[in-house]
């Protein structure tokens, strides 16, 4: 038993007060290692980038809010303009009727042209006209500004196309539903006003309502706005067609159908 007690005393560690004080002094002397200079620079750069990004996002948000207000005001002014145009037509026709006269409306300046026949048996001249009109596929549609040259082109290609004078509803539905833009030679859906602004912002067209207004009123920038729009890829008409090879006035589908093109657009849009 004496041997066991002596061995236990040897194994027990000595806890002298001097030793404990020394260990405490060592821990106080040990400091946290300093942060490397490269890491400090990285943190500062990241904080500066974050602040710059937040500042940019706030500025963009403010700019978008201002742009939304501008777009809303423009759409409102366009709505008033369309209403005045419609009411003035009615007023002039009533005045003419009251005076036992006839009111002759102004000649239309905008046409919508649809290709209704394929590629079989197309003569070189007609093929070239269809290429110039950007009608390379069947049931493609484009807007055309009417003048002497374009009317002559439409007459050359008349057996292969159906065309007429679209109203505001047709123009708006076509652009909203089947509107695609030509961006970097690619067909991109017009899902955001920023796409239009990037391409046509320099001529004052910043939203889809501006685009509709420019096309419908045949403004001074009609050519650029129309070239920006990809040719409309329409569906085959619901209920089928009457007869492609004969003119509309003879009961067919080809040629000029004036305001009846709107009914055809409804069937194909």
Describe the overall structure.
This protein has 269 residues and is an alpha+beta fold. Helix content is 55%, strand content 10%. A hairpin with a 2-residue loop joins strand 4 (180-183) and strand 5. Helix 6 (168-178) packs across helix 8. The longest helix is centred in the first third of the chain and has 62 residues, at 37-98. The mean pLDDT is 89.
Structural key phrases:
alpha+beta; two-stranded antiparallel ribbon; about 270 residues; elongated; 10 helices
Compute the average pLDDT. Answer: 89
Taking Cα atoms only, what radius of gyration do you get, to the nearest Å? 38 Å
Helix and strand run: HHHEHEHEHEEHHHEEH
CA-CA gap between termini: 108 Å
Q: With helices defined by DSSP (H or I, 4 residues minimum), what is the helix count?
A: 10
Biggest sheet, strands in spatial order?
6-2-1-3-7
Largest sheet data: 5 strands, mixed
**What's the helical proportion of residues?**
40-55%
Contiguous uncertain segments of 5+ residues: none
Shape: elongated
Overall strand count: 7
SS content category: alpha+beta
């Amino acid at each position: 038993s004496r041997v066991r007690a002596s061995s236990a005393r040897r194994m027990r560690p000595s806890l002298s007060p001097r030793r404990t004080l020394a260990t405490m002094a060592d821990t106080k002397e040990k400091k946290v290692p300093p942060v490397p200079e490269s890491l400090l620079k990285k943190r500062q750069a990241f904080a500066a980038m974050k602040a710059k990004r937040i500042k940019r996002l706030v500025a963009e948000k403010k700019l978008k809010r201002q742009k939304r207000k501008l777009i809303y005001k423009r759409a409102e002014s366009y709505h008033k303009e369309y209403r005045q145009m419609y009411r003035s037509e009615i007023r002039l026709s009533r005045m003419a009727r009251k005076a036992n006269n006839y009111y002759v409306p102004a000649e239309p300046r905008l046409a919508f042209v649809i290709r209704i026949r394929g590629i079989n048996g197309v003569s070189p001249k007609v093929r070239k006209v269809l290429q110039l009109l950007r009608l390379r596929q069947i049931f493609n549609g484009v807007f055309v500004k009417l003048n002497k040259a374009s009317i002559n082109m439409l007459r050359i290609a008349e057996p292969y196309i159906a065309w007429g004078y679209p109203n505001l509803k047709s123009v708006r539905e076509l652009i909203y539903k089947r509107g695609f833009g030509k961006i970097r030679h690619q067909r991109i859906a017009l899902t955001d006003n920023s796409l239009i602004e990037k391409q046509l912002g320099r001529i004052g067209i910043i939203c889809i309502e501006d685009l509709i207004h420019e096309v419908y009123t045949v403004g001074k920038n009609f050519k650029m706005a129309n070239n920006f729009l990809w040719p409309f890829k329409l569906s085959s008409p619901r209920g089928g067609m009457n007869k492609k090879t004969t003119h509309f006035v003879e009961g067919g589908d080809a040629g000029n159908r004036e305001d009846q093109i709107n009914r055809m657009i409804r069937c194909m849009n």
